Amino acid sequence: MQTPLILALESSCDDTSAAVLRGSVVLSNVVANQAVHEAYGGVVPELASRAHQEHIIPVVQAALHQASVSLADIDALAFTQGPGLMGSLMVGVSFMKSLALSLDRPLIAVNHLHGHVLAHCIADANQSPIVFPFLCLLVSGGHTQIIAVHAPLQMCLLGQTMDDAVGECYDKIAKMLGFPYPGGPHIDRLAQTGNPLAFSFPCSDMPELNYSFSGLKTAVLYFLQKQSADFIAENLADICASVQHTIVKMLLAKLKKAVKQTGIKTLALSGGVAANSGLRSALQTEGAKNKWQVHIPKFSYCTDNAAMIGIVAKFLYEKSNFATQNCLPQARMPIDIHL
Q1: pLDDT surpassing 70 at residue 1
Q2: Does residue 74 have a pLDDT over 90?
């Protein structure tokens, strides 16, 4: 089978992205962010879908131009089917269905979560290719999951958060501290200069390999309510470092348990929170100590992007797993897959 040239689109939340891939090689990966949400302290779904409509054509044109290809060269069109914000997904799905119809090209519907996991399969001259099976810690604003990945299209959920996702926890605590949205990177930045043991916050202990971050969020709220504004300002770096230390400790405790249960010692980090320096550093340290093979993605493949959608589409294309014009966006989708 000829190596396919795939045009991929990602529009699950507030980033509009288009990418062109030749097999596993990324020829272009263009992302348009939406600054409109900063004033509201979070993503406003209606504003997100309107911004996608504004960005989608320029982003696709830029991706084709950077890849030095035309629409006529494309073999298949891939899009994010879900999970995500329904309005945002509808924009991307409708656009790609129309484009596929006009070009008479096959459609490939992609699970956004599979994209985060398989971003590790994108060809990169600076990183060794990941070996199956591996455990993936998927951490983002909407998801916190441990996944056993036995093959590109064989994944099984082992554990997940029972309430808040870790990225959501970061952003809500950041809002308590007065940081602008998105606040997670601000906590990470200050944590690098603070004392992680300055303050003690509780770690939840959910059954099996599951997580809970709502208790930590509440504990930080109560802690801050007891402090003066001057105390918080003077100890901001230590507070951020202590919060981050607690979150990372919780994440790695379950991951170590998953390694013990499965015997899989190849580990991968995925999702927007995979850009967090504290988590990246802690996982690498833990990996060296336990002789794990640790894979951490480039920053550009941590946050939502179309290249990760394109790599999943490549594997689905090889199995002729195409979507129809009746395909609909889905706000929720399970990560388990066995193809």
Answers
A1: no
A2: yes
pLDDT digits (tens, 9 = 90+) for 83-101: 999 999 999 999 999 999 9
Q: Which fold has domain 131-297?
A: Nucleotidyltransferase; domain 5 (3.30.420)
Say if CB 306 and CB 156 are below 8 A apart: no
Fold that domain 5-119+301-338 belongs to in CATH: Nucleotidyltransferase; domain 5 (3.30.420)
Could you give the CA distance from residue 159 to residue 148 in angstroms, rounded to a whole number? 10
94-112 burial: b if 16+ Cβ within 10 Å, else e:
ebbbebbeeeebbbbbbbb
Burial 173-182 (b: 16+ CB within 10 A, else e): bbebbebebb
Mind giving me the DSSP string for 6-45? EEEEE-SSS-EEEEEEETTEEEEEEEE--GGGGGGTS--H
| CB 316, CB 80: distance < 8 Å | no
Q: Where are the domains of the chain?
A: 5-119+301-338, 131-297
